[in-house]
């Protein structure tokens, strides 16, 4: 694949500019954007960067991380603390994401989005208030495995790490999750499916296609 070197600042600006001219596929007033990638690729950092670039351009946005929508530990860890299949298939409450994040942003929706449901550290409800995203606003959802679901994204960004970079940048206590990302690459091919591809092997020197 042919990728072009770029800086993170420039990337944030270019993605924000692209979103300014993008229309929702369902004709609704909100855009829904995916920042897909393993935690080691830090997709949330890019989502925050784009949010700031949109802010200075007068466009409201809301950054939401899927780690705020983990299922309770009693369900996530039912088969052990390091069960790869559970991590891949069962850690994220996709039903809650549909109900609390995507549903309100459908045409005719309220625009009232729940930014998180459960604290991933304490395993308790966050009790966060709903956030009203005004018409014209942009949802910036970040997390792993986003493109294997039928979420209604208007633009998808995948942050790609080579197997070696993924292993180097994943903390040792989380290395057990690596087979799940291998499975994701094999079954979903996010690098091919995404609208925008960013190679982030060297966190100082990204490259992209978009």
Structural class: alpha/beta
Shape: globular
The portion of residues forming beta strands comes to: 15-25%
- In total, the number of strands is 9
Q: Which strand order spans the largest sheet, edge to edge or round the barrel?
A: 1-9-8-7-2-6-3
Radius of gyration over all CA atoms, rounded: 17 Å
Helix content: 25-40%
Spatial separation of the terminal alpha carbons: 12 Å
Series of secondary-structure elements, N-terminal to C-terminal: EHEHEHHHEEEEHHHEE
Helix count from the secondary structure assignment: 8
Oligomerization state: single chain
Biggest sheet layout: 7 strands, mixed
What does this structure look like?
The chain is α/β, with parallel strands linked by helices and 210 residues long. The chain is 33% helix and 17% strand. It has a seven-stranded mixed beta sheet. It has a two-stranded antiparallel ribbon with strand order 4-5.
